Request: fold
Amino acid sequence: MPAWSDRTPSPQLLQMARWLAGDFSNQEQAWENPPFFAQIRVAYRPLPAQVLGGIGFYVEQAYGGHLGDPYRQAVVELRQTDSGIVIRNYRPLEPERWRGCAREQADQLSQLKVEDITYLSGCDVHVQQQGSLFVGVTEPGQKCCVVRKGQTTYLQTTLHLSESEFCSHDQGMDPSTHQQVWGALAGAFRFQKVVDWQSELPSFPADPALQSPT
Ligand code: CYC
Reply:
């Protein structure tokens, strides 16, 4: 059993968490291609270690200029498995209560409990490291159900994360025709980090076998 199996994250998981921790903007892309890409901000705020017992983030997605009114709030948890990294997706039961916690009210995230969020089954993102890139896709099975404007869809998302960019492409697909119903039509959103929060990631004790007794 590797030393990082439960409490201590693997070096790979920590690397991914450091790259993800921050406030991202696609301003460059929005300027280059205004009809297709609205300006969006995505914040991945590290959660204190005790909230999920590992590495997690509180997420807010909002249109630029409307940061106080996010259109999506989520909690994600990074877990190492034998076959790679898995991102588990959760939704806050009372989103209003946590609004603003990605930025100004981040101190309140220490109050977050597992009882405040619900796990979205079928929505895990499976991640593989490919050189200096983490590549993720929704788990197989087309089970990540998203109802939008009364229409049931399944989510198909892809993620590319490097030190300098976070790219994601969320598409809602029709369960019978497999045609895209919602989401970007012109490819992935391309985000650059505008604020870095990696120093807020919880620190984990080194392998106890390497520590001298106190
Ligand atoms: C939904 N986006 C979702 C969902 C997931 C992700 C799992 C479905 C569950 C939910 O509603 O929370 C995406 N999860 C991810 C990604 C990762 C992950 C990318 C890797 C870290 O773990 N999404 C974008 C664009 C924007 C967008 C910037 C425009 C298309 O990346 C929108 N995502 C968006 C919307 C929904 C969504 C509108 C549906 C929310 C709803 O209506 O319920």
Summary: DSSP finds four helices and 13 strands in the chain.
